[in-house]
Amino acid sequence: MIKHSFLNHLTLLQFEGEDSLTFLQGQLSQDMKAVTGHTALLASYANPKGRVLSTLLFWQASPTCYYALLRQDVADFIQKRLSMFVLRAKVKISTVPHQLIAYWGEDLSPLTSLSSTIQTFVDTPSIALHQQPSFTVITLNAQRYAIQFPTIDTTQRLLVVDLDAETSPTLIGEAGSRAEWEKQDIQIVLPWIGEATKGEFVAQSINQDAIGAINFKKGCYPGQEVIARSHYLGNLKRRTLPAVMDVTTEDTAALLGTDVMVEDTPVGQVVNAVSVDGKTYLLLELQLRSTENSAQLTLAQFNTSSPLTLLDVPYSLDKPE
């Protein structure tokens, strides 16, 4: 059975112009030369203190055009901030009309009715176990892209990016909940930084190095000195881990940035959260020592009768070479 949902918590920025690659290379943690029309890569945009203002997923539409997927609530801020540094570079940063349609299920073969090229995804599911998450891109036509998202099980996930925002899309399968898709992002430990948490976390504490969003061999970009120093000279004391709580809340947005407690001591913050199926799934940025000795983790605004249970991270948290 296939389910679908519109993802209105995410949005799209377009970077267009002959200097797009050079400009992005000087602003982001990722080596943008490795971004192609077939492979989307994660990246961080940080302030000079190395604290992440946004996490993004980039792919190349043409040699002079790139698209970035990011949280909708921080997109205007990121667009305006990046535009401040364009100066004389030949690049235009803009929002573009679009629709983001997520599909997931055990078998996505019915989606080949959208394009026969989707069969590639059906034949090669992306399972994010013991490896960095990867995102394969297929161009369906001049206005539509399909991006394969990783999963932790046999579920397959596909995001269709449609640049035609006027025409009602042909939807396949039954309507699902956006929360179901967000739950899967939490299970694969894919942090999305938005308005509530921008500037709160250094890149490594939200696993940006572990998920391949940082290239330590590229040149300078905002926050690079701090991020590199932490990598080469520091010990990793904080990481982001998935967790679940056996209660639900109608306003999960209010949880973002909330303190995580061990007894009366704050030991971390909530990065992402979603309630689905009677539970609340969260990504928690934590002091690693707080996870030792079976310490009971709770949220500051919930009592201790609602403990947090940590889940497995599907990729290595060891410091990359």
Folded structure, characterized:
The chain has 321 residues and is mostly beta strands. It has 2 domains: 186 residues, Gyrase A, domain 2 (2-Layer Sandwich); 79 residues, Aminomethyltransferase beta-barrel domains (Elongation Factor Tu (Ef-tu), domain 3), CATH 2.40.30. β9 and β10 form a beta hairpin. The relative contact order is 0.16.
Question: In a few lines, what is going on in this structure?
Answer:
This is Folate-binding protein YgfZ. It comes from Pelistega ratti. The chain has five helices and 17 strands.
Detail the topology: elements first, then pairings.
Layout: E1 2-6, E2 10-16, H1 20-25, E3 39-46, E4 52-62, E5 65-71, H2 72-83, E6 92-95, E7 99-105, H3 119-123, E8 135-141, E9 144-149, E10 156-162, E11 174-175, H4 178-187, H5 224-233, E12 238-245, E13 259-262, E14 265-276, E15 279-287, E16 297-299, E17 309-310
Parallel strand pairs: 1-11
Antiparallel strand pairs: 1-7, 2-5, 2-6, 3-4, 3-8, 4-5, 7-10, 8-9, 9-10, 12-15, 12-17, 13-14, 13-16, 14-15
